[in-house]
Hints:
- By secondary structure, this protein is an alpha/beta fold.
- The protein has one domain: Alpha-Beta Complex (Spore Coat Polysaccharide Biosynthesis Protein SpsA, Chain A), CATH 3.90.550.10.
- It is 41% helix and 18% strand.
- Helix 2 (53-63) links the parallel strand 2 and strand 3.
- Helix 4 runs parallel beside helix 7 (215-246).
Amino acid sequence: MITPETFSVSVVIPAYNEEENIEEVVEKLFSFLPKISYSFEVIVVNDGSSDRTGEILGQLKKELGKLKVITHARNYGYGAALLSGFAGACHEWVFFMDGDGQFDIRDLTLFLPYIDKYQIIVGYRKKRMDKWYRIVYARIFSFFCYHLFGIKVRDINCAFKLIQKELLEQLCLESRGATINAEMLAKVKIMGIAVKEIGVGHFPRKKGKETGGNLMVVIKALLYLVILYSKITVFARVKHDKYLERQ
């Protein structure tokens, strides 16, 4: 049975120009997390924000002892922000979600009954509250991910995932852009790891400007899927060779 004494988690939040949202998101995290874990940390990665995101995080860090802030000198991309956060995580489990306020951290309680049986648990947005074109882009992206990698999860890019740090390290993730979730799930599939999917709430963005719906970001993500395919092939070959060595 999972209790606050036994559940150890690092929470990673990528943030890019989220001055209107990040303080509320962080405060909600610190209000909720002590209820499910006595051993936690929150890592916010400021990915080269040009607004007051860094300043706000600096003040919050003075007030909240378990808050870590990682700052990129410039905007390296969503995947790069997550990779920096993952590298700094020190607890048994790693959870990540966006810093735009579109998820409710309390939905993490839905995941806890399954962590004894699964190494990775992923959310899917029961009702996605994004603009229509973002939903169209997501369907196109999912189509390619299914046909290239056989990924069958309902919501590949849902930024509400919990994964064991040990497994995360074995994946050797490289994607610095929007394809990091696809890389993660493709490699998990190759390793034969079962994925648990759980529906979570999703809310409209109330403040700030979205960046994931930019057409050029989507085009770059689709092009990078082709590059990712070759890397996934190498990853699969390495895993297969190690399997044969053990026989």
